[in-house]
Write a sequence for this structure.
């Protein structure tokens, strides 16, 4: 029987902060899954958490004492709270309540959990769980945005039925999804880029990367729009890989059903015109990647009210959208040194791609076959050929979109080092 590959969790220490929410019971299963994969878990509970699960259950599953008090003589004499936060490879907050997120976003340290979060020099992965109205409240939205900008990693929340009887976003991700997020975080750089502590590492450290992703929606009337089949998976994977390589990343995304990549600032847009405006606002950058499937046209006069079926056959007047890639590649003052386009083609792939590379003025063009047989749109894999302005073309084998993203990021770093 083939050996199963060792989990990146083997031999790692996870500081697990359990917040006070009904989802705290999932933390117990999470501890079990982490330990099965060879990780050591140091559990911490907030006062609220103890209302939902007992310290004894958590300690028994973790095989380690639960810490819950900021000023504990016993704890401080064995392992001080600063030490506790530093002795872990990753800090995980599960479930992360709205209150814990607010404290972390604002740097409050008024109990053991929040003090540990402020004292750590390792990355923090939060697994939010709360009522959907709390998740959607502007205050939580602000806190989440700020935390993302600080490099805090997120897993979920997901949509679903809630303990309070409502349905929507705010449900805690399932333990196995959290394990996968922890493994991904550990595989990347988990040290915080704190000044003088652990300077940013990675191939794109200190670089700024702007990525467009997903489709655009061009409204016909308030309920109808023109769209395309792009899922945004490849663009989001590139943003994620660039962030993991140490870059400051702005992801300008059309409407997609994907979670925001960890450590990335996400600007959500709907139309091509909004996408162009958001990209311009995000410049200057070292690398610009146009992975979005931008609609080529918009409806000249979208109706203010829902169009009614009439006797006449309906026709739509269309106007061309601006070409975002060509606009960025043509900027005089602040053209990014590396401009990367995608070519989504269904026939005569190379001919169209070469022509596109020249017409758009980009440095690299990622050609992919999006014909129905390719499974690229919406799928998990991609088979691409990289065309360079100097004439070179390299075909990569079919790879996961995450692997394509990693390889592209390496290529961007090499290009930047050359320029
Ligand atoms: N692109 C863009 N703005 C547009 C259209 C396309 O930034 N208005 C970018 C895409 O993000 C991609 C590249 O241009 O990086 C090529 O997109 P593609 O849809 O393949 O080409 P089009 O320019 O739309 O040409 P055509 O539809 O004729 O193939």
């Amino acid at each position: 029987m083939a050996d199963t590959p060792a989990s990146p969790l083997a031999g790692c220490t996870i500081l697990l902060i359990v917040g006070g929410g009904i989802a705290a019971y999932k933390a117990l299963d999470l501890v079990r899954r982490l330990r099965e994969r060879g990780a050591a878990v140091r559990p911490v509970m907030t006062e609220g958490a103890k209302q939902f699960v007992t310290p004894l259950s958590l300690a028994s599953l973790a095989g380690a004492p639960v810490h819950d008090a900021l000023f504990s003589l016993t704890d401080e004499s064995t392992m001080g709270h600063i030490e506790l936060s530093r002795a872990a490879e990753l800090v995980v907050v599960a479930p992360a309540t709205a209150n814990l997120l607010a404290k972390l976003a604002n740097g409050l340290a008024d109990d053991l959990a929040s003090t540990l979060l402020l004292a750590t020099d390792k990355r923090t992965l939060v697994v939010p769980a709360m009522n959907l109205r709390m998740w959607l409240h502007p205050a939580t939205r602000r806190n989440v945005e700020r935390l993302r900008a600080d490099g805090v990693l997120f897993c979920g929340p997901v949509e679903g039925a809630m303990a309070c009887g409502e349905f929507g976003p705010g449900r805690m991700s399932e333990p196995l999804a959290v394990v996968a997020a922890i493994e991904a975080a550990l595989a990347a750089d988990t040290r915080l880029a704190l000044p003088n502590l652990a300077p940013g590492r990675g191939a794109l450290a200190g670089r700024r990367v702007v990525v467009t992703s997903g489709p655009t929606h061009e409204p016909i009337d308030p309920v109808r729009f023109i769209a395309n089949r792009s899922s945004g998976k490849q663009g989001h994977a590139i943003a994620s890989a660039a962030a993991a390589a140490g870059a400051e990343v702005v992801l300008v995304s059309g409407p997609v059903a994907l979670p925001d990549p960890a450590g990335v600032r996400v600007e959500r847009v709907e139309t091509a015109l909004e996408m162009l405006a958001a990209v311009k606002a995000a410049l200057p950058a070292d690398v610009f990647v146009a992975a979005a499937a931008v609609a080529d046209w918009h409806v000249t006069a979208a109706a203010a009210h829902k169009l009614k079926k009439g006797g006449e056959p309906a026709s739509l007047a269309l106007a061309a959208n601006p070409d975002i890639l060509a606009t960025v590649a043509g900027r005089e003052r602040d053209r990014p040194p590396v401009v990367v386009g995608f070519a989504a083609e269904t026939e005569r792939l190379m001919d169209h791609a070469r022509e596109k590379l020249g017409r758009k003025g980009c440095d690299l063009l990622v050609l992919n076959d999006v014909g129905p047989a390719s499974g690229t749109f919406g799928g998990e894999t991609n088979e691409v050929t990289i065309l360079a302005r100097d004439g070179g073309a390299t075909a990569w084998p079919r790879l996961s979109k995450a692997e394509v993203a990693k390889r592209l990021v390496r290529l961007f770093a090499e290009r930047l080092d050359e320029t």
